[in-house]
Amino acid sequence: MRVTGMIRYVALFITLLGTWFIVQTYFDHRWKAISLRSWLGVTNKPRSEQLPRHKCGNQKSCPQNHFAFKIISGAANVVGPSICFDDMALMSSVKNNIGRGLNIALVNGTSGQLLKADTFDMYSGDISRLDTFLQEIRHGTIVLTASYDDAATKMNDKVRAYFMELGSSHVSKLGFRDNWVFLGAKGLKNKSPFEEHIKNDKNTNKYDGWPEQLEMEGCAPRKMD
Ligand SMILES: *[C@@H]1O[C@H](CO)[C@@H](O)[C@H](O)[C@H]1NC(C)=O
């Protein structure tokens, strides 16, 4: 009786030992790694790895052969606009290359390289400078535009026609202190899908005298046509 009992205990002990050994070998390592860290709230991954940062700080990453972009219009006559393309801040208050009116960056649609960035006063400025700037845009160039304060007072039909040629659908309706963000390209066969326009309307304006700021982000195909 006692011997049988002893054997049972020994057998049980060996079984438990074996189970512990198997569990230890196969699971313990991983289990410990997961549970201990989550209990302690400790992670050894840097923050940037947990929340992937996309180009231009966008919500989504872009497929191959696309350029990430983000265009933000000005807010009233206080906060300047910004233009990001392929993770490069092309125009911004920090870069000190923006101004009231229209802010336009030209990018090579194949290489993504910045060609020109300029700002045009549309309230009291010289419209012929903008006319020349738009006229000289070469085929395959991506054009990024952001309004600030007023982008329409000096706008004329010739300049509107240039923007329409770049794929704009809204430029014809652009009025005093409207906000407008637009990405187009020279040589587009269709209208650009990348355009937002908000009217200056005292019933809907967010600010006293100006509509709310526009922010548009997306993925522009390389060599748009
Ligand atoms: C754009 O870049 C491509 C490739 O680098 C080059 O061949 C082309 O001439 C450039 N076009 C313009 C308009 O700069």
TrEMBL record:
Recorded GO CC terms: extracellular region
Record-annotated ILEI/PANDER domain positions: 100-187
Membrane-crossing residue ranges in chain numbering: 6-27
Pfam family, one: ILEI
Superkingdom, taxonomy of origin: Eukaryota
InterPro entries xref list: FAM3, ILEI/PANDER_dom, ILEI_FAM3C
Places the protein is found: Secreted
Keywords: Disulfide bond, Lectin, Membrane, Secreted, Signal, Transmembrane, Transmembrane helix
GO molecular function: carbohydrate binding
Family to which this protein belongs: Belongs to the FAM3 family.
Descriptive protein name: ILEI/PANDER domain-containing protein
Naturally occurring in which organism (per UniProt): Mycteria americana (Wood stork)
